[in-house]
Amino acid sequence: MLHPKLGRVMNLVYYNCLFFALMGTTLRLRSYGKIIRLEKVAWSYLIYSAFIGVGLFVSIYLILPEALVDGYIKYNIVLQWNFFAMVTLRVLGVLSCYGTMWLKRHEIIQLYKDSLIYWKRFRNIMKSTVNRKELKELQLSLARIMWRQVMVLYVGFMFSSVVQFQLLSVISQHTLLALSARLTHFLQFIAIKMGFYALLVLLDHQFKVIHLALNALHEDKSGKNWKTLRSIANMHMETIQLARRIFSLFDIANATVFINMFMTTLNIFYHAVQFSNKTIKSDGWGLIFGNGLIVCNICGSMMLINMLDDVISSCNNTGQQLKQFSDLPKVSKKLQRELDAFSVQIKGNYLTYKICGLVELDKPAGLRFFESVLSHVIILMQFDLRRQQQPNKIQV
Question: Which segments cross the bilayer (predicted)?
């Protein structure tokens, strides 16, 4: 029972992921009947998935440009090493992404099936317990957030396309093919980020629905809806398990996404330094689109980290919602028993997200992310200054 506006943006994300073969199987979407059915995995889609994965992997060869000899990075060893690092990360990104899709395809399809069962099981709670107006407002707010992320990603793609085109030293068939390959990889990277963001939006929706259900149950002063509270507790537990399965299944793929985000941000900022000190020549339009690219990159990265933090906070703050039941004048023994069981369940099931089980991601981690980027840019700037001063010393 998704709102049509939220459903439309989810359909857009689905078709982007489907085009780049980021789905374990195709889904039959029926917007009028509000039904999502799993189709049998067709051999044609598996062949298409292999074609896309191999095509992206082979196209990396086209990214190896003549620019190493003739382009703007010819005399800058930092840009050269940065280029090779980005190419290496793209290879790892393609391998991890499509490796996950192929090696864990059956687990991903089972995740889809379990998600549909989960949705059918608990939608009655939303219908009977949650206020429809509040549910509508929640879904509209999530739809706006999702649309903003989509717009930021595609506007950033437009700015990046213009900037990369202006950086071409010579417009030839090879350079245009290399540019097309880079932009194709950028679109695939956008589809991955959109897919992960959409999963986070759906998880955030479910945790906030639990909050709305608890608020509605608290407003019912009878204190006898212990069965409803038990269903909400089951919903909360299964949502946590669903979130952990999603984080575990796509752990390697998401790790490469965040590493690529770090290197891309570092690359953009360092190029901005090169533009500012006239090492790379550019006109006014280049500066405008370059600044736009910086803004879109920062906004897109922070929106992704904020949504991840919102999901974790929505899950772990459920205990605060239970505290409001302490002000009820009279509570039945069965309801008190369910409240105690729900509290114990929450205390033993905190949700966290760690990249490969090592680096925990939350809002403070996002601030450390940009702090680290700026520190690396400053180090690279000092390296540039030292490299530029060396010829003068030789002449003296």
Answer: 12-29, 41-63, 83-103, 151-171, 183-203, 252-273, 285-305
Q: DSSP label at 326? A: G
CA–CA separation, 97 and 256 (whole Å): 8
Structural tokens at position 98? 């499509």
Kindly compute the dihedral angle of the four CA atoms of residues 270, 280, 65, 190, in this order, to the nearest 10 degrees: 50
Are the beta carbons of 205 and 143 closer than 8 angstroms?
A: no
- Listed as own residue / partner, the contacts of 83-86 with beta carbons closer than 8 Å and 24 or more positions apart are 85/263, 86/263, 86/264, 86/267
Q: What is the pLDDT of residues 111-158, one digit of tens each?
A: 888 888 888 788 777 777 888 888 889 989 999 999 999 999 999 999
The owner of tokens 């979130």 is 243
At residue 187, what are phi and psi to the nearest 5 degrees? Answer: -65, -40
Chain mean position to CA 192: 7
Q: Is 320 helix (H, G, I), strand (E, B) or coil?
A: helix
Q: Check whether 167 has a pLDDT greater than 60.
A: yes
63, 164 Cβ separation under 8 angstroms: no
Q: CA-to-CA distance for 327 and 376, rounded, in angstroms?
A: 52
d(CA 235, CA 206): 9
Rounded CA gap, 222 and 220, in Å?
Answer: 6
d(C-alpha 164, C-alpha 86), whole Å: 14
DSSP secondary structure string for all residues of 314-330: HHHTHHHHHGGGGG-S-
User: In this structure, is the dihedral angle defined by the CA atoms of residues 82, 361, 296 and 95, taken in order, positive or negative?
Assistant: positive
Task: Provide CB contacts within 8 A for 306, sequence distance 6+.
Answer: 363, 366
Which two tokens mark 86?
Answer: 């980005």
- b or e along 195-227 (b: 16 or more beta carbons within 10 Å of the residue's beta carbon)? bbbbbbbbbbbbbbbbbbbbebbbeeeebebbe
Q: What is the pLDDT of residues 176-194, one digit of tens each?
A: 888 888 889 889 989 999 9
Domain boundaries, the chain: 4-395
Helix, strand, coil shares of the chain, percent, nearest 5, are: 80, 5, 15
Query: What is the predicted pLDDT for the residue at 47?
Result: 83
Six-digit token string for 103: 């090696």
Residues 6+ apart with CB under 8 A from 267: 82, 86
